[in-house]
């Protein structure tokens, strides 16, 4: 689990709730929630296909709960596998391959063990990575569009509340609920856009870049193993992918 994302969301809403304090019941208004959340979801659906919206919900959940492994740790694991394969042959790492939790890497090594041409393996891995990036980009676009729509729906709710209030000036008992709709919808829209949708879109883009980096490490490593290259050479290649602070040295 990505603790930073979950912790950030919880702390953000916790601070807002702490600021509201005992006045919390006054900040809960079902009509305002219906306008902002229901309206945002509905209008976002107009902008995309239904399948895109459904996929975005899963990607959003994955953004909150999924944590990528450290790129330098994965690079070290790949060099260890490369050393074992070079010393004993690629079939010697079959047991290690079976224990790999990452399906992308496991499939690639499976192709390698089966004797698949390196160019074919490379094309498959790069195509799979491109598909992953496209899915993540689509999810980020849905979140960004939701962040644009939520404040607009808040403004719509504000206008609705003002119209109701102005039409009921002769009835003092209706002014309070109308003002609640007018003000709370703006607040809900701002909260959803700036505390949920935009941060999750940014985190999804970051995770996507990091996952692409790790997949590049996997691709270079699998191809190196297939070609029976020196693991020292693989280390040099992987260090060109890793940032300077994360570069590894296993042959000193």
Residues in helix, %? over 70%
Helices and strands: which structural class?
mainly alpha
Rounded mean pLDDT is: 89
Main sheet attributes: strand count, strand direction, barrel closure: none
Secondary structure: number of strands: 0
Q: What pattern of helices and strands is seen along the backbone?
A: HHHHHHHHH
Give the N-to-C terminal Cα separation.
Answer: 34 Å
Q: What is the number of helices?
A: 9
Beta-strand proportion: under 5%
Low-confidence stretches: none
The backbone outline, from C-alpha atoms, is elongated
Rg (CA only): 25 Å
Overall description:
With about 250 residues, the protein is mostly helical. The chain has helices at about 5-20, 30-45, 50-65, 70-90, 95-100, 105-115, 120-165, 170-225, 230-240. The longest helix is centred in the last third of the chain and has 55 residues, at about 170-225. It is elongated.
How are the secondary structure elements laid out?
Layout lengths: L2 H18 L9 H18 L2 H16 L5 H18 L5 H5 L4 H11 L4 H49 L5 H55 L4 H11 L11
Helix pairs in contact: 1-8, 2-7, 2-8, 3-7, 3-8, 4-8, 4-9, 6-7, 6-8, 7-8, 8-9
In a nutshell, what does this entry contain?
This protein has 252 residues and is mostly helical. The protein is 80% helix and 0% strand. The radius of gyration is 25 Å and the shape is elongated.
Features:
single chain, 252 residues, mainly alpha, 9 helices, 80% helix, elongated
């Amino acid at each position: 689990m990505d603790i930073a994302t979950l912790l950030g969301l919880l702390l953000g809403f916790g601070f807002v709730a702490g600021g509201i304090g005992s006045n919390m019941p006054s900040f809960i208004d079902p009509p305002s929630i219906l306008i902002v959340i229901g309206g945002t979801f509905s209008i976002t659906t107009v902008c995309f296909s239904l399948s895109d919206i459904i996929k975005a919900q899963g990607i959003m959940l994955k953004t909150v709960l999924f944590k990528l492994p450290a790129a330098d740790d994965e690079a070290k694991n790949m060099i260890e596998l490369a050393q074992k394969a070079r010393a004993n042959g690629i079939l010697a790492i079959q047991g290690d391959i079976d224990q790999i939790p990452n399906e992308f890497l496991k499939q690639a090594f499976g192709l390698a063990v089966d004797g698949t041409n390196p160019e074919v393996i490379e094309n498959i891995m790069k195509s799979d990575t491109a598909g992953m990036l496209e899915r993540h980009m689509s999810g980020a676009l849905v979140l960004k569009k939701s962040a644009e729509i939520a404040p607009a729906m808040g403004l719509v709710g504000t206008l609705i509340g003002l119209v109701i209030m102005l039409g009921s000036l002769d009835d003092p008992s209706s002014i309070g609920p109308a003002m609640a709709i007018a003000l709370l919808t703006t607040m809900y829209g701002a909260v959803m856009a700036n505390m949920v949708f935009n941060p999750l879109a940014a985190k999804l883009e970051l995770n996507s870049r990091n996952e692409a980096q790790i997949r590049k490490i996997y691709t270079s490593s699998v191809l190196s193993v297939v070609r029976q290259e020196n693991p020292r050479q693989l280390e040099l290649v992987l260090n060109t992918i890793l940032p300077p602070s994360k570069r590894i040295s296993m042959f000193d």
